[in-house]
């Protein structure tokens, strides 16, 4: 399963305001880790899309105005949106940190099957 790429600011606004939980991978092709990050993101997508989370990707080189609006400072960065608002983010390619981020902002499921709120370090932050 491959996340859809967002190609313009209008689609970005429509997607984050869809009323669904949306996770967006902000990445750059020249960041040095795009394949590893894409693998982690794909694994997360397979797991979390089963409970209704939508996954997308934004290339910050192609959509720099959106990256600046969301205040992306490092790539890759995964951002969780609810009701059009940035509610959390995790920088880097550590799938564990992104799972913690998801557990914090998507109710009803985590690796142990229980809902939880987890924030253990500064790389996983609420917006």
Topology (elements, then pairings):
Blueprint: E1 4-5, H1 9-16, E2 22-27, H2 34-48, E3 54-59, H3 64-70, E4 77-82, E5 85-91, H4 95-105, E6 124-126
Parallel strand pairs: 1-3, 2-3
Antiparallel strand pairs: 2-4, 4-5, 5-6
The protein's oligomeric status is single chain
Query: How many strand units?
Result: 6
Poorly predicted residue ranges: 109-125
**Structural class from helices and strands?**
alpha/beta
Largest sheet, strands/sense/barrel: 6 strands, mixed
Tell me the β content. Answer: 15-25%
Give a structural overview.
With 127 residues, the chain is of the alpha/beta class. The protein contains four helices and six strands; from the N terminus they run βαβαβαββαβ. Helix 2 (34-48) links the parallel strand 2 (22-27) and strand 3. The radius of gyration is 13 Å and the shape is globular.
Summarize the structure.
The protein is an alpha/beta fold and 127 residues long. 32% of the residues lie in helices and 24% in strands.
List keywords for this structure.
127 residues; 6-stranded mixed β-sheet; disordered C terminus; globular; alpha/beta; 4 helices; 6 strands; 32% helix
